[in-house]
Every structure is written in C-alpha cells, then in structure tokens.
Amino acid sequence: MKDSLQAGVRYTHTFVVSAAKTVPALYPESDEFTAMPEVFATGFLVGFLEWACILAIHPHLDWPREQTVGTHIDVSHLAATPPGLTVTATVELVAVEGRKLTFDVEAHDGVEVISRGRHERYVIDRGRFDAKVAEKRPA
C-alpha cells in the first residue's frame, strides 16, 4: 500500500444500466427471478458500488500484486432504476485500519438517490490469496 492510501480518498463512477443488469438477468436459471420487474438488480448495484471503491483506491496500491476483496456490505436499495438511466456512485474512503478499508457509498440514478451505506474491503497480496484459495479447490 502506498502512503497515499488514506481516509479522504473520493471517487465518482458512472454506468448506464442495461437490461443485462436487471433483476431477470441476475439468475436467469430462476423462474422467480425472470418473472420479476426489469429494474437494476440489488446484486448488480452492490457490484457497481464495489467497482467504484476498487477504482478509488487502485492508484494507491502496488497493482497488480496488491488488490482488494470485499468483506462486508451494508447498503440500502431505496428506489427502482429502469434500463437506460445512468447511475452514479460516489464513494469515500473513511477509514484505513491496517489492511481493512471502510467506505461510505452512495448511488443516484439521475432522478433520485437509490442507495446509501458502508462497504469494507481488505488489501490482499494476490499471490498469497490465490495460493490459499487453491488449497480449498476440490481435487
């Protein structure tokens, strides 16, 4: 981690919601999901918020050796967003405790706030992480 990885790092990221990021697309194997409204899925919203956090800190890591993984997410999903709208995530790194990073996150769809909350990530050494995961793989 570089010395520049400190609380106060902010980032804004935008993305146009497509049909591929709606509830029916989240689990196309599920009849229940495919029958649901075509709006931005909470699962994809979480990924979008994570993406914004990753982009925020990318310049402050020794990439690609150092990366981050999400370990906790506590966000609301306040409003439905149809395909075609642009969502904007605004994230701020509010705490750095060793390898643990805590972010305040918010998303807006151009009409209203659609999400607010907190997200935690941990800085990993990619080689060590991959080695540990390899030990868990079935033979």
From TrEMBL:
<dbReference type="InterPro" id="IPR054485">
    <property type="entry name" value="FlK-like_dom"/>
</dbReference>
<dbReference type="InterPro" id="IPR025540">
    <property type="entry name" value="FlK"/>
</dbReference>
<dbReference type="InterPro" id="IPR029069">
    <property type="entry name" value="HotDog_dom_sf"/>
</dbReference>
<dbReference type="Pfam" id="PF22636">
    <property type="entry name" value="FlK"/>
</dbReference>
<protein>
    <submittedName>
        <fullName>Thioesterase family protein</fullName>
    </submittedName>
</protein>
<feature type="domain" description="Fluoroacetyl-CoA-specific thioesterase-like">
    <location>
        <begin position="34"/>
        <end position="126"/>
    </location>
</feature>
